[in-house]
Amino acid sequence: MGIPVESLKISSSKSQFDANAGNYASSSVHRFGASLPVLLKLADPNKNDLVLDVATGTGNTALAFAPLVSRVTGIDMSPKMLEQAKSRANTENILNADFLEGDAEHLPFRDSSFSIVTSRHAPHHFQDVPKFLSEVKRVLKPSGRFVMGDQIVVHTEDQNWVNEFQRTRDPSHYLQRLVTQWQDLIHDAGLVWVKDQLVPYKLEFDWWVQASGCKSEQIMKLEQMAFAAEQSRRSRLNLEFDASGRISCFIEPMLVVKLEKH
Ligand SMILES: C[S@@+](CC[C@H](N)C(=O)[O-])C[C@H]1O[C@@H](n2cnc3c(N)ncnc32)[C@H](O)[C@@H]1O
pTM of the full predicted structure? Predict the structure, then answer.
């Protein structure tokens, strides 16, 4: 997949997200981001659906589904993120949502338990995506649908740079993929690619580094990487700079895709 796994220095998503759960709970990018309505539309939920949201974080996707379905379960490996999800469900009096600790690569559910599985803003953290996909397929009912939203890389020549940039900001970032790499993984998992949409997100650099709790050395390295990026990369990645030449924002493309188990 382009980057040898041995060369990656991955830290745990659990400690990264436990430490920053409050920031993610108040993140409008995660709560109101444009990929959420697209994901809901592709999933086309109804009142009989049983939904599993994998790596639910503070519950944004799970809680958007709750009023539209029979029951939704959110799982995540970060207890602090889950506390935020439970607290929001209580505040909003949402009674058909459960949140529990669990690993995307070892889903703690019986075969054929859910009619819809979702996972948004998260699969780039998973270290064994083939295992994750086989688990999703296992827990989906026959004819179930899986709707996934994840940030991708559009141009092959930017993949190493983007992953280094992302990992400098959040050491639990594992791998941001090309659409063709997702297509291969989905094909190998035996799932059927039904429909997709690319949703661009404009991210403010200062918000982005604050949300993941970056320290000043990380911020400096990110600023230097962006400053040193050649013009062609700046344009492909829509890196924008202020008058002093410091990065101010960039576009993150999110792939939202509907997959089916036939
Ligand atoms: C950006 S947050 C998720 C956002 C959320 N899905 C939403 O729609 O707002 C990424 C989440 O992935 C979780 N995560 C990362 N790797 C995981 C794994 N292998 N199993 C379960 N959760 C994982 C992290 O703990 C974190 O809460």
Answer: 0.95
